[in-house]
Design goal:
Elements lengths: L8 E5 L4 H12 L3 E5 L13 H12 L3 E5 L6 H15 L4 E4 L14 H29 L2 E6 L2 H4 L6 H21 L4 E9 L13 H11 L7 H8 L10 E5 L2 E4 L17 H12 L9 H4 L6
Parallel strand pairs: 1-2, 1-4, 2-3, 4-5, 5-6, 6-7
Antiparallel strand pairs: 7-8
Helix pairs in contact: 1-8, 3-4, 4-6
Length: 304
């Protein structure tokens, strides 16, 4: 029986550990040749070490798979292009890209510095754009290809102290939808996954209070390996009809997430004044206001 990703070539960024590592291993186990991309930096983006990417590539090869290593940064257009070129040079083609690389620089908004904002946006949002753009020309020419972008419920729902990360992750959803719309005529698909899993980045969450400790304990139950099967499926030919969707994976649960649509409207034939909006318009709309939830408020049950 043919493997789901047999003959395919995939790039996984941030694949030196955590969720990226498990996705790279799963892609290879499903028959794909994998470019393992990782700078080997800390969760805040500092330092550089080829060791993590080499270790994952060696693990793939030891299991009989095919892997190449890239330590280029996703955060620059030219270096991102070299990651795609690594796939072409090593395996002759490119069929899928998983935009997983990321860093965290958490800070309450009123304390956030421009450098903290720029660094996170550059890796998550610009990095995913650069990687996708570098692959897009090849996908268009061969009239096939698929993207998986790792978003987050911090962006989809909200979270404290993560304005930079949340903005980047919600921006990724819009980027994915635009790619899907622009490239569907070339049989190119683009989807997002919001993962719940223990990783190096999640490991940086403060555990100073009992509430934080309990939250982290729950997340620790959700291993990165739980995310990988959906990523493999979405890049495979089996998902040919799945495009422009946002999924979440939480332990053994898979969700399809809503995307913004009108909830309720009010109309006044004479038009609106600020006073009429205050007296009539806003009270009529208030029942459909979105609450100020955080991700943990919405996903409040224990993972099973």
């Amino acid at each position: 029986m043919a493997q789901m990703m047999e003959g395919k070539v995939v790039v996984v960024t941030g694949a030196g550990g955590g969720i990226g590592r498990d996705m790279a291993l799963a892609m290879a186990a499903a028959g794909a040749s994998v470019v393992v991309n990782d700078l080997g930096t800390s969760t805040s983006g500092e330092g550089q070490d080829i060791g993590p990417a080499e270790a994952v590539a060696r693990e793939i090869r030891d299991a009989g798979g095919r892997a190449a290593v890239s330590t280029e940064s996703v955060a620059g257009a030219s270096s991102a292009a070299r990651i795609i070129e690594c796939a072409l040079d090593s395996f002759g083609r490119i069929d899928g890209v998983v935009n997983n690389a990321g860093i965290l620089r958490d800070r309450f908004f009123h304390k956030m510095g421009t450098d903290e904002w720029d660094a996170v946006i550059q890796v998550h949002l610009y990095g995913s754009y650069y990687m996708s753009r570098a692959a897009a020309s090849h996908f268009k020419e061969q009239e096939s290809g698929a993207f998986v972008h790792m978003t987050s419920t911090s962006g989809l729902i909200g979270n404290l102290g993560q304005a930079n990360y949340s903005a980047a992750k919600l921006g990724l959803v819009a980027l994915s939808k635009s790619i899907a719309l622009d490239m569907q005529k070339f049989n190119v698909r683009s989807n997002c996954i919001a993962p719940f899993a223990w990783s190096r980045m999640i490991g940086s969450i403060p555990t100073d209070t009992p509430e934080q400790q309990a939250r982290v304990a729950k997340i620790q139950q959700m291993t990165p390996a739980k995310i990988a099967p959906l990523a493999v499926y979405l890049l495979s030919p089996a998902a040919a009809e799945v495009n422009a969707q946002v999924f979440a994976v939480r332990n053994n649960e898979i969700f399809v997430m809503s995307q913004p649509r009108p909830l309720r409207s009010v109309h006044r034939g004479e038009g609106w004044t600020p006073e009429f909006i205050a007296e009539h318009g806003m009270p009529a709309l208030r029942a459909s206001f979105v609450p100020m939830d955080r991700s943990a408020d919405v996903f409040c049950w224990d993972p099973v």
